[in-house]
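Pasting as-is:
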Amino acid sequence: MVTARRARSSTRGTARGGVADNTHVQRQDDRNNLSARVQLSYRDISELRGYAYNPRDNEPAIESVANSIKTFGFLVPVVVDASNVIIAGHTRVAAAQSLGLSEVPVVQVEHLSEEEANAFRLIDNKTAELSLWSFDLLAGEISKLQGSGLILTDFGWTQESLDCLTDVVASDCLNTDGLVDLDAQERLRRLERRAPITARFVLGEVVFFIPATDYRRWVDSLRTQYDYNEAEIIAAVKQRLGITEEAVVATARVERGPRAARA
């Protein structure tokens, strides 16, 4: 197990029994790293060196990152160590080179040991993988960009994923392969949709997502209850949502009632 700690002092305490106690040194190390200040400067790309053992394959992302830099500018600096070896930003540097840029913004960190720099190089990438999208909020943000002129497929999204997040829904966006048994699949050939992790619901301007497991339980219950009759399922869903003609008329009457009384 790699422990990214650096002893900045040669003086170490000794616990009882002659065992060295590094706790104080490690805590002091943490405080020093936490309070370290960094400075940004622009450096010639030729001065920067890629890490020879970088475990990340950045090639698939270079074009999208280059499109981002071309559209918005180089907004996230490259991080290098005291020897100008890249700690974070290999993809950004490669993208900048593909655009013909000669210099990039750089933060040079000198307070990290080689071991700490190697650890951060891995941890920075790994922690970025832990974030998850809120699909309800993402759908709204994607919708805001409609008409902006941005082509989001230039930045890593596929057209299918965008269709699933906007009012234009791909025909196979919510495929239900594997949600029911083989005997029922023939009866559902016109209803086949895909829901690998989440299912997307669109009710006019209202768009929301639910977990696929909840969707499976809900749709299987409906299909069983109405014997896989599509027309009856649709009628039942509309009834439950209160959007049948009778329900709308009744709601309108209730809404008009108090206003009429106040008048």
